[in-house]
Amino acid sequence: MMLGGLAALAGAMAVAAGAFGAHGASGQAAEWLRTGGQYQLIHAVAALVALRLEMRGPGWLFVAGGAIFAVTLYAMALGAPRWLGAVTPIGGAMLIAGWLWLALRLMRG
């Protein structure tokens, strides 16, 4: 259950980032932490649902895309160079692909 474990770790990371954004950061850094945490948490849950539906492909895209999307924002919030923000949309594209793959599988039955 590697996917389930990674989804659970992503959920924990998202809550920690959101808490730090709410209580330990300010300005743009707080926004990045909040946005990253929100997207990562939503997609950790989506990955667990996909796993429950036995749709591992979309689940992996949710976990990996969520990690790329959120971790780039977390890194910038902690002082990493802003060019890292150019990587963030790659994670977003993976999240969209996961939703489309899930939709396709569900519509096909």
User: How many beta-strand segments?
Assistant: 0
Largest sheet: none
Helical stretch tally: 4
Shape: elongated
Using only CA atoms, what is the Rg?
14 Å
| Class of secondary structure makeup | mainly alpha
- What is the terminal-to-terminal distance? 24 Å
Helix content: over 70%
User: Averaging pLDDT over every residue, what do you get?
Assistant: 97
Order of helices and strands: HHHH
Which parts are unreliable, with pLDDT below 50 for 5 consecutive residues or more? Answer: none
How would you describe this structure in keywords?
single chain; elongated; mainly alpha; 0% strand; 109 residues; 83% helix
What can you tell me about this protein's structure?
By secondary structure, the chain is an all-alpha fold. 83% of the residues lie in helices and 0% in strands. It has 4 helices and no strands. The protein has helices spanning 2-23, 27-52, 56-77, 88-108. It is elongated and about 45 Å long. The relative contact order is 0.16.
Quick summary:
The protein is mainly α and 109 residues long. It is built from 4 helices and no strands.
Q: Secondary-structure blueprint of this entry?
A:
Blueprint: H1 2-23, H2 27-52, H3 56-77, H4 88-108
Helix pairs in contact: 1-2, 1-3, 2-3, 3-4
